[in-house]
Structure formats: C-alpha cells, structure tokens
Amino acid sequence: MTNAHNGPFVSRESLVLASGSPRRRELLADIGLDFEVVPSRAEEPVPTPGEQPTEYALRMAKLKTMEVAARYPGRTVLGADTIVVLNSWIMGKPANEADALAMLNALSGQTHQVITAFCLVLSNGETSSRFVATEVDMRTSGEAELKAYIATGEPMDKAGAYAIQGIGTFLVTAIRGSYTNVVGLPLARVLEELLAAGVVVPA
C-alpha cells in the first residue's frame, strides 16, 4: 500500500493502481489517496490498421486495467495508457536508442498530441473509460542534443521518448491542455470519476 501525503482527498475504499509508473503513483499520492500498486501483466499489442489514436489508447487502458481487475475481484482498479501522436504516427515507448532518436527527431520543432486514456473498474464491476488529449509544442533540437538526452536513459521508458516532468522539460516550449495528462495521468479528470463513484471524498 502506498503511503499518501497529507492531501485534500482520502480514499473511502481500497484502490488498486494497475500501473508501475512512478509518475502516476506520485500524482495520486500527492492528493492524499491510499492505494496498492499492481502493475498490469497485459500484452501491449500494436495498433490495428485504421485504428484511431484515441481508440487505441482506450483499448490499451482497458486491457491493462481488466487484467489486474480479474486478479483483484471486488476491488476498485484504475489503469491508464499514454501515447504520443504526431500526424498519424502513434508513438509508444521506444524499442531502443535508435527508435528514441527517430521519435525525437520527428517531434523536434513540431506540435503533437499526448493522449492518456484511463479505465476505472469499480468494486461492483461497473467499468468506465475516458481519454484526455493535450497539445504539446516542441523546440527545434539538434541531433547532438537529442543523442545526449537519450544517453541519460530517461527516454527509454517514456511514450514519445521524452518526459515533460524530467530532464526532457527542455524540449517543450508550450502546452495546451492538462499538464498531468502529459506526465501520464489526467488527474483532474480521474478525480472527477473517483469522486462521482464515491471512491474518493474530500479529507
């Protein structure tokens, strides 16, 4: 069980986070929630031909969440999936350093979307899925800069090969929409769902 900070909200029932992401864990803990972290073991298939980015993100979030929910019946489970989209290119986590460089070169000087979908399975079995999209503007970066960034290791487990809240903050010139969505969880939107379901209440 993750120990929450003193925050404005508390969990009314046992919550399971179906993700190993430290960013998602920190966001939930920062507002005061108690939860258990259970990373999903679900496969992450590639998009199907013609599948829209939002549909793909929602499918991935549901796959991850339902896999954990099946192992923890009677618990409220929250899972999420984040993708980066440039035109029709859906970027997940890079497979290797060359893949990371290809992603970062493509994003350089461009505007892209970050889409995070989340799925909530309540203890009574009810399920809901939502997504939030944020536009992100990137500075034009030289290849030497990008290679030096990749050498830090940070891009290798991030969708689109960068972290807005980490070293990669130097890449971003502006965003339109939810900042936490780019980090990996649209916190305000998730909180709305948790409050409406009675899973979370003000402290």
Write the layout of secondary structure elements.
Elements: E1 9-11, E2 15-17, H1 22-30, E3 36-37, H2 53-71, E4 76-86, E5 89-91, H3 97-107, E6 111-121, E7 127-138, H4 143-150, E8 172-176, H5 179-183, H6 187-196, E9 200-202
Parallel strand pairs: 2-3, 2-4
Antiparallel strand pairs: 1-9, 4-5, 4-6, 6-7, 7-8
Describe what this molecule looks like in 3D.
The structure is a single chain. β6 (111-121) and β7 form a beta hairpin. The protein has one domain: Maf protein (Alpha-Beta Complex), CATH 3.90.950. The chain has helices spanning 22-30, 53-71, 97-107, 143-150, 179-183, 187-196; strands spanning 9-11, 15-17, 36-37, 76-86, 89-91, 111-121, 127-138, 172-176, 200-202. It starts with 8 loop residues before the first strand and ends with a strand. The protein is of the alpha+beta class and 203 residues long. The radius of gyration is 17 Å and the shape is globular. The mean pLDDT is 96. The strands form two sheets. Strands 2, 3, 4, 5, 6, 7 and 8 form a seven-stranded mixed sheet that branches. A two-stranded antiparallel ribbon has the order 1-9. It has six helices and nine strands; from the N terminus they run ββαβαββαββαβααβ.
